[in-house]
Amino acid sequence: MFRRPLEFLNSLPAHGDLVEIRLGPLRAWVVCHPQLVHEMLRDTRTFDKGGPLYERLRALMGDGVVTCPHADHRRQRRLLQPAFRPSHVAGRTDAMGEEAESVCRTWRAGQRIDVAAAMMTLTTGAVSRVLFSDSLGAARTAEMRDCLAAVVRGLFVRTVVPVDALFRVPTPANRRYRDAVARLHALVDTAVAERRAGGARDDLLGTLLAAADDGEQAVTDQEVHDQLVSLLLTGSESPSLCLSSAFGLLAQHPEAERRLHAEVDEVLAGRTRPTADDLPRLVHTRAVVHETLRHSPPGWLFTRSTTRDVEFGGRRLHRGATVLYSPYLLHHRPASFPEPERFLPERWMAGRDADEPYGAMIPFSAGSRKCLGDTFAMAQTTVALATIARRWRLRRPPGPVAPVRPAVTLGPRSLPMICEPRTRELVEAEAGTGSLARRAARGSGTPASRKAG
């Protein structure tokens, strides 16, 4: 589980639909069949958020909407839901595109960049605007991004090795984790204090503070803090990994990349980023995102804890039992997805319903605790993918590709790639020489809009 977790998970269905394993000194059960997973996720009273993962996450996030127990989830979700409704998400499409443009505008032809770091910058900036408007500033947003990256690196080992004594030893890794957690909490506290002193704004922090001041919704200052930390962590890490994985996979599958570029060029028609009206027309772009979420789901392993004795999957589980399910395992189930290791965006081009009853495709979970920000995440990744693909083709440098090592999330932590401009005119315009390029093109009789690949 610790050394080769993906191979280990994929081996379990051969042993049954519900398989007993050991996590250190603890017993746990892994659910291997999609119907059983949906049965569990729809019974949130019996299978509540719990187990090693959520015990560690609660120490970090408190009792925000991601980690809170069943009894308090509905109230919290109702408070936060308006910020993630489709109509509200559509209004943030321009901001998503601006964040993507700000990241890739500085790239240059032949430059070697770390795509994983760039995507984390992009998504941290986007979710910070939803939570804090633009009140953090560039320096604090960058510090927050570094803290989040360090926290995620340290969480997985704390999940699969549930022995607290190991993490109290003052090793360099343990110190880095504790320092990053402390800095993250301090940054959030500073942002809240500044907002209280500076007045209301139309963002999620403003909504939370208004609810806390109202006195009728039982929103405490601690809950405001916990919600912000929860949404920062989940809203930046998972979308950034999805985008990084998408660019890595596209570089290995040129036909899927060619279709993406053709669609982006047709839909944007010379514009540099999509609008909300363009999203329904970016069919292949969205299929690339769906297939990336199937092939390399950022949220790849989750735990639940039983609140009572229950008969489940032919077993008698006692109260307090740890139950695991893995979107990665379900997404690589040959009975649901033939040739599961292949990256095939066309799986999603025929109108296949990702939310079909008992479907194996659950990148955002299912049931009443399905991810609050699923619509936001899909829009953000689609807009970012189209905006960057409009300008650049990203190539892997020569040499072996390091395998992805899962942490609390799944995806590349570092992804060096080389920038290759797709249109000479666009890149020259970014560098301030666009008018000269257009005059030269007219003089040579070559259309300035000709594609370079």
Describe the structure.
The protein has helices spanning 5-11, 34-42, 52-61, 70-80, 86-90, 93-104, 115-132, 137-160, 164-168, 172-198, 204-214, 221-252, 254-268, 283-295, 327-331, 374-391, 424-430, 434-444, and strands spanning 18-23, 26-31, 47-49, 112-114, 302-306, 310-312, 315-317, 322-325, 392-395, 416-421. The protein is α+β, with helices and mostly antiparallel strands and 453 residues long. The protein folds into two domains: 5-422, Cytochrome p450; 423-453, no CATH class. The longest helix has 32 residues, at 221-252. The model is unreliable at 433-453 (pLDDT under 50).
How is the largest sheet built, in terms of strand order? 1-2-8-5-3
Give the class-level CATH name of the largest domain. Mainly Alpha
Q: How much helix is in the residues?
A: 40-55%
What's the CATH architecture of the largest domain? Orthogonal Bundle
State the order of secondary-structure elements, H for helix, E for strand: HEEHEHHHHEHHHHHHHHEEEEHHEEHH
How many domain units?
2
- The value of Rg in angstroms is 23 Å
Biggest β-sheet: count, sense, barrel?
A: 5 strands, mixed
Mean pLDDT: 86
Number of strands: 10
The CATH homologous superfamily of the largest domain is named: Cytochrome P450
Ends apart, CA distance between termini: 43 Å
Poorly predicted runs of 5 or more residues: 433-453
Number of helices: 18
Structural class: alpha+beta
**Percent of sequence in beta strands:** 5-15%
Q: Globular, elongated, flat, extended or rod-shaped: what is the shape?
A: globular
Q: Indicate the CATH topology of the largest domain.
A: Cytochrome p450
